[in-house]
Backbone:
């Protein structure tokens, strides 16, 4: 009879907490419609109360389940301890690990580029529309202007705009 009563009380606590939360949410929504302060105060009191009752019901149910199943847990735990630690078969594979830092600095072990490839050749240019390489004939070979030239052009453009605004 004790187990049945405890189960009923746990379920009652869970349902009561849920219903109080729903009632508080209803008062909160109806308080904003009818502009009634009494409903808002009641809603703000019912919501935390409902959450506390719901959480206590959850923890109480969990505690009941754990205490009822304690015999099963201890039986499984004793069996596990009686078997001892199982022997694990492991294989040491040092070749799958990356090389040590000192080994990676050794110039003799650095990967070499294939024959005919140059180290300083940039990747090919691509167009904005697709990823096909552009022809070398279309590439611009002229150097960009120097910093002083670009500043002088910017100052000249700004002064011409100022002259247009003043006139």
Residues:
């Amino acid at each position: 009879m004790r187990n049945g009563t405890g189960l009923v009380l746990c379920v009652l606590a869970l349902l009561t907490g849920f219903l109080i939360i729903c009632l508080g949410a209803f008062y909160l929504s109806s308080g904003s419609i009818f502009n009634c302060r009494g409903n808002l105060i009641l809603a703000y009191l019912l919501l935390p109360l409902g959450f506390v009752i719901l959480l206590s019901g959850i923890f109480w149910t969990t505690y009941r389940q754990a205490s009822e199943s304690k015999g099963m847990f201890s039986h499984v735990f004793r069996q596990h301890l009686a078997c001892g630690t199982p022997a694990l078969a492991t294989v040491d594979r040092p070749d799958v690990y990356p090389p040590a830092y000192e080994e990676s600095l050794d110039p003799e072990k650095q990967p070499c580029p294939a024959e005919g490839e140059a180290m300083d050749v940039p990747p090919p240019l691509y167009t904005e529309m697709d990823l096909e390489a552009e022809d070398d004939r279309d590439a611009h070979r002229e150097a960009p202007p120097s910093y002083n030239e670009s500043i002088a052009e910017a100052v000249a453009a700004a002064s011409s705009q100022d002259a247009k605004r003043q006139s």
Remarks:
- The radius of gyration is 39 Å.
- The chain is about 60% helix and 0% strand.
